[in-house]
# Entry
Amino acid sequence: MRAAVLTGIRQVELQERPEPVAGPGWVVVRVESASLCGTDAHQYDGRIDTPFPRVPGHDFAGRVEAVGEGVDPSLVGTPVAVKPSLPCTECAECRAGKLLDCKRKKLIGLWSDGCLTEKVAVPQVNLVPRPDGVEAWQASLLEPLAVGLNTVDRLGIKLGESVVVLGQGPIGLSLTRLCALSGAGQLIVTDAREAPFSVSRSFGATETTNVLERDVKEAVLELTDGNGADIVIETSGSPASVASAIDLVRKEGKLVHIGWANDLPPIPVIPVMAKTLTVYGIGGNGGRGQYERALELVRTGRIELEPMVTHRFSLDEIAEAFAVADSKSGGAIKVVVAP
Ligand SMILES: [Zn+2]
Ligand SMILES: [Zn+2]
# Structure
């Protein structure tokens, strides 16, 4: 079968790979749709360390193609979304068969070969049944939404609170929508590109600020009577944005870091103390029903994913898909790949 393989920094090619086999408790999923995210782009550009060669990709949906020992054979043909963090298979919980309790879950596509291929083996516990009315391309865009849900779950936004979302990539846009649904009042979003702002506004942003045109601190302080926002959520992973986030939050406010890269600055401890801040780190989708609820928000139309999908490619066009996701050319927000 064909697989996209990262062979080095900014090097991706199609290779023939053997078909996966489902071990006990595992299934083989035929990939119908996969999407690229910042993690994939940073594996490609070297900002996230990846062992090469590696089949990347972790956000995907498809159908169960085959089942291993101990899995109900009637699952074959079931449409599914797939949670991207796989149990390690080596810890005490995993060896006892309690895969859901694994504390050392690892992202597929980073620590093991991922979904940018035709078929992939995953544990049955990673499957989320895809209900009628949710298409594969939609179910391959759940991860940023689930990461966003993990964030708002922890924040407990109060109706009318002011929120700043730094960065309007897929996670930033998801958070814009989720904060609006959670009752944020003023919802200020930033990006270095104009392209995502029409989506931001349709998702509920009240102010959009292009960081290349306006000083963000000045803009946020002006919009919040000089106080700073109740909540500031950094999703861009840009070192400059991470460094400035603390200047935007009010005294006793909440600061969230989600944007990830190898070259981020440390958290400045003295301003955290001086402002009596609560700082949250979000390292994933939480694994506590966020995936299932993300799917429900899509099924019920609470979030429209279509505006985020700017590019669609086939697996044969994977080099172009990565080039677009990396350069964000053509106003790219989400790149979807269908094998
Ligand atoms: Zn991702
Ligand atoms: Zn484990």
The chain has a mean pLDDT of 95. The domain at 2-141+305-338 is CATH 3.90.180.10 (Quinone Oxidoreductase; Chain A, domain 1).
